[in-house]
Amino acid sequence: MEKEWMNEALDLATEAVEAGEVPVGCVFVYNGEVIAKGRNTVNETRNATRHAELNCLDQTAEWCKENGQNFATVVAAMKVWVTVEPCIMCASALHSLNVAAVTYGCKNDRFGGHTSVLNTAVLYPEPSPMVGGLESDRAMQLLKDFYKGTNSNAPHPKVKKDTAITRLTIKQDSVTQE
Amino acid sequence: MYGKRRKTDSSSPVSDGTQHEEHEVLENWHLRPVLDDDVMSDYIQLLDVYVDRVTDPKHTSRLIRELNAVWPIPSLQHLKRVSKSEVILDLAAEEGTPEICIQKLKDRGLDTAGLGCAPRRLQVPAMPPKTRRHYQEAIKLWPCNFHENKYLEKVLSGRLFNNADKLEQQKYMKKCLEAARHSFESGGAGVGALVVDPAQKRIIAIGCDDRGKYPLKHAIMVVIDLVSHSQGGGAWNVGDKQYFYEGEGSRERKAHVQDTVSDPVTVTRIEGVSRFESVQKQSSGSAGLECGSGKHSIIGGFDTQAKDVSESSDSCGVIYSDPVPRTSQYICTGYDVYVSREPCTMCAMALVHSRVRRVFYGCASPQGALGTNIKLNTLKCLNHHYEVFAGILEEECKCIETTWQNNLAIQV
């Protein structure tokens, strides 16, 4: 089942590529049901904070309204599947809302809020458990392909030919990276 | 952060006279920069080295030359090799002894003539001093090189902003406080935030915390989204008493949803806004807004922008405002943010993503990430760094913040 949710998140990340957004996808599962699924919409909204996780949280609020549920209760029992380690902002948001669990795919060397850049869990009294590494290669491949290809909104710095592809994701300068 | 900057801030293209028509008085508050701990620290890092006496001064220059050749110490390049009649021989490891130290240098071919050959341990500055204050401490211990960062010294000494700048800051914070009070009354956390384009002294958006309706609607998140609205984007509906300003040709348009004339508070606010707009028109009209044909790009970070400001102020007095912000303005690049209390980690990171230039906040908050729990603006591995200043109208801000925290405690 775990893999299935992550597959769905990866599909959303693929969809993000088609929309010219950084490929990060996310699904929220509550009582075995997907209640929110989202991807980055940074370029579309002109808002650098519109990451997949925050979009899903907005959807969750909508879902709660439609289904007459309490947001805080749902969120506290909800599991998050996201293709890339949540950034410091998203990780903080998830911790502050006490989501039940977060599973992510690959690491986020530039902004990661689990272990990569800042361990945000220590800043919250009841942090949400986070685990990484599920389908990590596929998630990373999407990012690599994205930065290798054409992101119409990202500036294209000169990259030395011998630079390893993994460094490309680090060097590319775009706020849309999550 | 706080790297070298070109001439900056106080020299703004729009004259101050028009901005302070109400003869605002500077109230009693103290602005403090939020800087890296190692810049602010009262102590400098030290480390142990072996130094030895030069018994015959005739040998001094030869000894320095030979020591630098046979045993250079790359990590101590900020220090002179010699001080008065002593030279640095080597870093002193814990288990090292003076004898081993001398023997090692001899083995490498040092001619110890003129040297006392009785090294002693001494503590010297471990790092190049970053500030003049640290430099003055450092040279008490050992002669040291120092490359002054003029911008940083200005920040540290409080010379970065003049009275006109402070009045401007106070004016913006008052607007934040107004929004904060509204937030408090409508079930938010009592926080107000404002985004301004400092190059034109133009307010882009005013927003307030609305977490009573949705827990992620912190003032900063709201105001960032309002800026997106001003660029034709945005994700959230514009809330009650939240504003963004949209460029439309040379005219300003205020966008405000759920605005009702029956609400007296709203009416006064609109009047305030139109006054602001007329000031904008006056100042731009007199300076010749549409001079030249070029669109000054304000994309690309502080340096470019600072240059643009000074260049345009030389030639025509004001930056040409691109009527189509969608292409000219890239999220919040170059903008300054004012907020009544210190942002939390989520909001502080949202400001990194949005690439703001400076963040000014009123008072600290227990969840704060720009000074209280961490200083997110000093995390070196992030790809963007903004400057942070705290303390504008601190007491007033603290008053609202304390009320909110007390209410929170009662609820729990």
Automatic annotation (TrEMBL), chain A:
What residue stretches are annotated with the CMP/dCMP-type deaminase domain? Answer: 1-126
**Any one GO MF annotation of this record:** metal ion binding
Please indicate if the UniProt record lists Hydrolase as a keyword: yes
Q: What is this protein called?
A: CMP/dCMP-type deaminase domain-containing protein
- Keyword set for this entry? Hydrolase
Q: Which InterPro entries match?
A: CMP_dCMP_dom, Cytidine_deaminase-like
GO BP field: tRNA wobble adenosine to inosine editing
The organism's lineage?
Eukaryota, Metazoa, Ecdysozoa, Arthropoda, Hexapoda
Gene3D superfamilies registered for this protein in UniProt: Cytidine Deaminase, domain 2
GO cellular component term of the entry, any: cytoplasm
Query: Origin organism of this chain?
Result: Coptotermes formosanus
TrEMBL record, chain B:
PROSITE patterns attached to this UniProt entry: CYT_DCMP_DEAMINASES_2 (PS51747)
Question: Does this UniProt record's set of keywords contain Disulfide bond?
Answer: no
Q: Which SUPFAM superfamilies match?
A: Cytidine deaminase-like (SSF53927)
Q: Name one Pfam family in it.
A: MafB19-deam
Region described as Disordered: 1-21
Q: Which GO terms describe its biological process?
A: tRNA wobble adenosine to inosine editing
InterPro entries in the record, alphabetically? CMP_dCMP_dom (IPR002125), Cytidine_deaminase-like (IPR016193), MafB19-deam (IPR058535)
Keywords carried by this UniProt record? tRNA processing
Q: Which CDD domains match?
A: nucleoside_deaminase (cd01285)
Start and end residues of each CMP/dCMP-type deaminase domain: 167-373
One annotated GO molecular function is: tRNA-specific adenosine-34 deaminase activity
- Which domain of life, per UniProt? Eukaryota
Q: Name one GO cellular component term.
A: cytoplasm
Q: Which PANTHER family match?
A: CYTOSINE DEAMINASE FAMILY MEMBER (PTHR11079), INACTIVE TRNA-SPECIFIC ADENOSINE DEAMINASE-LIKE PROTEIN 3-RELATED (PTHR11079:SF156)
Q: Which family does it belong to?
A: Belongs to the cytidine and deoxycytidylate deaminase family. ADAT3 subfamily.
Q: What is this protein called?
A: CMP/dCMP-type deaminase domain-containing protein
